[in-house]
Amino acid sequence: MVKEKILVIGASGQIGVELTLALRKIYGSSNVIASDLREENDLLKGSGPYVSLDVMNKEMLHVQVIRQNVTQIYLLAAILSATGEKNPNLAWHLNMQSLLNVLDIAREEKLHKVYWPSSIAVFGPTSPKHNCPQQTIIEPTTVYGISKYAGEFWCNYFSYRYGVDVRSLRYPGLISYKSAPGGGTTDYAIEIFQEAIDEKKYDCFLREDTYLPMMYMPDAIRATIELMEADKDKITVRTSYNLSGMSFSPMDIAAEIKKHIPEFSISYQTDYRQAIADSWPQSIDDSVARRDWGWKEEYNLERMTRDMMQNLNK
CATH 3.40.50.720: which residues of the chain? Predict the structure, then answer.
């Protein structure tokens, strides 16, 4: 068996921290190199190698890949939906160029695998609202969604044109207690827990009945690793797989939190993020992922809330 050497780019971000730690458990600490432009996240310190790396500097990235004998890259660096709307040019440039840099190097160095996350942000107001299928009308209205959809086709192109084994998931909103939210439209579902514990109240930037696809981080990490470890011949989608865990509204999550904190109250003051949320599907059909590589979520809203509360109270 070939020894894998994995580079995680954007390792100090919301997904990166937990994915890096999970990969180190599987492949061994020294075989998973964490990298970011930011300071090393406290949770990563002492758990394995860390390099300061700018994915936009292709030469520097290429040198690291050769020097460290990298065989797989997980590219997690991105500007997310809400942040991206404040600086569309930067979001497009970073989200697109970082991917092209990685795919080019993967092709040149014949890397074993590349992972790049897409998002439900690829869907737009014309996509089906309920059980949005794998293949459907896709007309994104945010620069984040546009960059992710374009990125999916670059992945597909490098797979068919150059044989790069690049794999991707369209993440729903991700919820975690380990790392701070990263500027996404679904961030309320992380903030609400901390505010409930600290303040016993939360002012939500989305309407109470805004249903969005969501996933608890342990499921997202497991899905990512299961996809990457699946046999190559099982991967039929080279753009990005739909992925689903649960769908809920701010009203639903508030009711669940009230079971743990009876005095908790929620108020609503919508902002520009409401329009972004309204453009996305309320639920996702991920039957292709279930069929191809056996995906199945473990957490529903009740189980996730219980776990979040226990961990945040610690």
Answer: 6-119+139-172+217-242
How do residues 169-211 score in pLDDT, each as one tens digit?
999 999 999 877 778 899 999 999 999 999 999 999 999 999 9
Cβ–Cβ contacts within 10 Å for residue 53, how many?
A: 21
**CB-based contacts of 229: which residues, under 8 Å, 6+ apart?**
none
Q: Specify the CATH architecture of the domain 6-119+139-172+217-242.
A: 3-Layer(aba) Sandwich (3.40)
CA distance 149 to 128: 16
CA-wise closest residue to 97 among 72, 121, 122, 78 = 78
With CA atoms as reference, report the closest residue to 212 among 282, 145, 120: 282
**Secondary structure class of 247 (helix, strand, coil):** strand
Three-state SS for 171? strand
Q: Which residues of 111-122 are buried (b: 16+ CB within 10 A; e: fewer)?
A: bbbbbbbbbbbb
144 is catalytic: yes
- 104-155 pLDDT, tens digit per residue, is 999 999 999 999 999 999 999 999 999 999 999 999 999 999 999 999 999 9
Answer whether residue 245 shows pLDDT above 70: yes
Q: What are the strands of the beta sheet with 32-36, ordered from one edge?
A: 50-52, 32-36, 6-9, 72-75, 113-115, 166-167
pLDDT over 90 percentage in the chain: 94
User: Of the residues 50, 74, 144, 299, which is catalytic?
Assistant: 144
What pTM did the predictor assign?
Answer: 0.96
* CATH dotted code for 174-214+245-313: 3.90.25.10
Helix (H) or strand (E) holding 220: helix 217-229
- Stretch(es) of the chain classified as CATH 3.90.25.10: 174-214+245-313
For residue 170, give both structure tokens. 């369209």
Amino acid symbol at 198: D
